[in-house]
């Protein structure tokens, strides 16, 4: 539904991958004047599917989880670093010591700015 | 064409225990220690099984687990295992007997299908903690993710902090003690067992109802929280199955025979 809706607005998709819809969906929302955070907060209500997605813009990093919390996400946050992955072992490839991580809950939307 | 890689994948079927553990004699018996930083998952588990089964050592410490997946799985001996760090997915699954202390965080599905024993996690746990738990105690001192104790069939899950959505989903038997808040859909489609919540409940799932706390419940909560040194919240609420989904008597005789 969102694919057709966005295509009617002039967007063209390069793949059949449903993840691409999320990127275009957010881009359209931001073109409409919403902030990245507001657009992301609307997404769990408007996007029908099972997802945890990351989004990166020129000056921000965001993550959103769907209402089922069915996709894993591990978050590590320190004063100068934010690391996100579906498993902690991926973060530990970058940080070689024991760290404090947690799993954000369903419908959580987090955005960090530079 | 000669295959130059192991076409059987990463299972390492021919791997042998690396025999790297340092074994010392102490007043309480022999103890073993090994560093897992440079070992594969298979090597860590082989070494652990060698120590527990062949050497008969009752106290093993593993350093630098590095959040690897499937560590300390399938240990069927009574022994004490300390994991000095965090684990990834499926840690301590399918165990029967050991007491395991994890001084870090764990990923999804910790202690799934545990038959007996104790697993204590000092930090957070991911979703599906204690999935299909059959017995023993699973203790998470901080927060857990979603669907804690999904399909739990026995034992006790104790959470010191908050729990996510669908906690106790399809709980069949056993008990859960959540000291903090729980997300939506608590006890959805639970069949039996009890869930005690010390904080706020976002919403109840299908066929989950509140019940009165009895003296036996109070004694149970005091005893379990006392064992693990977890502070008891001001008040607990108890949730059980509403039995509205108990439709088993509606089966035809032939179907009933199949079920039984």
**pLDDT averaged residue by residue of chain A:** 95
CATH class descriptor name of chain A: Alpha Beta
Q: Which value, in Å, is the CA radius of gyration of chain A? A: 15 Å
The biggest beta sheet of chain A is recorded as: 3 strands, antiparallel
As for the CATH topology of chain A, it is Glutamine Phosphoribosylpyrophosphate, subunit 1, domain 1
Order of helices and strands of chain A: HHHEEEEHE
Main β-sheet description of chain B? 12 strands, mixed
Question: Which runs of chain B of at least 5 residues are low in confidence (pLDDT < 50)?
Answer: none
Mean pLDDT of chain B: 93
Q: Label the overall shape of chain B.
A: globular
Count of domains of chain A: 1
- Secondary-structure element string of chain B: EEHEEEEEEEEEHEH
Multimerization state = heterodimer
Helix content of chain A: 25-40%
Structural class of chain B: alpha/beta
Q: Over all CA atoms, what is the radius of gyration of chain B?
A: 20 Å
Class by SSE composition of chain A: alpha+beta
Largest interface: A-B, 18 and 25 residues
Question: Would you kindly provide a written description of the structure presented here, covering whatever features stand out?
Answer:
- The complex is a heterodimer of chains A (114) and B (260).
- By secondary structure, chain A is α+β, with helices and mostly antiparallel strands.
- Chain A has a single domain, classed as Aminohydrolase, N-terminal nucleophile (Ntn) domain (Glutamine Phosphoribosylpyrophosphate, subunit 1, domain 1, 4-Layer Sandwich), CATH 3.60.20.
- Helices cover 32% and strands 21% of the residues of chain A.
- Chain A starts with a helix and ends with a strand.
- In chain A, 20% of the residues are buried.
- The model of chain A has no long low-confidence stretch (mean pLDDT 95).
- Chain B is α/β, with parallel strands linked by helices and 260 residues long.
- Chain B folds into 2 domains: 14-104, no CATH class; 124-242, no CATH class.
- Helix content of chain B is 13%, strand content 25%.
- A 12-stranded mixed beta sheet of chain B has the order 1-2-3-4-5-6-7-8-9-10-12-11, with helices on both faces.
- The A-B interface holds A 68-70, 72, 74, 87-89, 91-92, 98-103, 105-106 and B 66-69, 85-86, 88-89, 104-105, 107-108, 123-124, 126-127, 142-143, 145-147, 164-165, 183-184.
């Amino acid at each position: 539904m969102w694919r057709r809706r966005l295509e009617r607005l002039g967007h063209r998709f390069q793949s059949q991958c449903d993840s691409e819809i999320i990127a275009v969906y957010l881009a359209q929302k931001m073109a409409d004047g919403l902030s990245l955070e507001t657009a992301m907060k609307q997404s769990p209500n408007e996007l029908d599917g099972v997802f945890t997605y990351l989004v990166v813009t020129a000056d921000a990093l965001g993550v959103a989880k769907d209402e089922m919390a069915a996709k894993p996400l591990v978050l590590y946050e320190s004063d100068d670093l934010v690391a996100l992955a579906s498993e902690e072992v991926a973060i530990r490839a970058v940080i070689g010591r024991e760290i404090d991580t947690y799993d954000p809950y369903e419908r959580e939307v987090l955005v960090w700015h530079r | 064409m000669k295959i130059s890689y192991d076409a059987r994948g990463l299972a390492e079927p021919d791997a042998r225990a690396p025999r790297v553990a340092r074994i010392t004699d102490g007043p309480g018996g022999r103890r073993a220690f090994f560093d897992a930083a440079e070992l594969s998952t298979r090597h860590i588990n082989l070494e652990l099984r060698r120590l527990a089964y062949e050497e008969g050592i009752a106290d093993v410490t593993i350093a630098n687990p590095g959040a690897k997946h499937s560590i300390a799985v399938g240990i069927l001996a009574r022994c004490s295992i300390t994991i000095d760090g965090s684990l990834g997915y499926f840690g301590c699954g399918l165990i029967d007997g050991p007491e395991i202390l994890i001084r870090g965080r764990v990923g999804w599905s910790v202690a799934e299908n545990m038959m007996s024993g104790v697993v204590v996690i000092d930090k957070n746990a991911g979703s599906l903690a204690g999935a299909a738990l059959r017995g023993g105690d699973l203790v998470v001192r901080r927060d857990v993710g979603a669907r804690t104790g999904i399909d739990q069939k026995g034992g006790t899950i104790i959470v010191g902090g908050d729990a996510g959505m669908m906690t106790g989903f399809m709980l069949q038997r056993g008990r859960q003690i959540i000291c903090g808040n729980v997300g939506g859909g608590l006890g959805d489609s639970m069949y039996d067992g009890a869930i005690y919540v010390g904080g706020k409940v976002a919403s109840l799932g299908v066929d989950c109802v509140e019940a009165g706390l009895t003296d036996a419940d109070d004694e149970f909560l005091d005893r379990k929280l006392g064992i693990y040194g977890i502070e008891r919240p001001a008040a607990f609420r108890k949730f059980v199955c509403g039995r509205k989904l108990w439709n088993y008597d509606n089966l035809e005789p032939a179907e009933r025979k199949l079920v039984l």
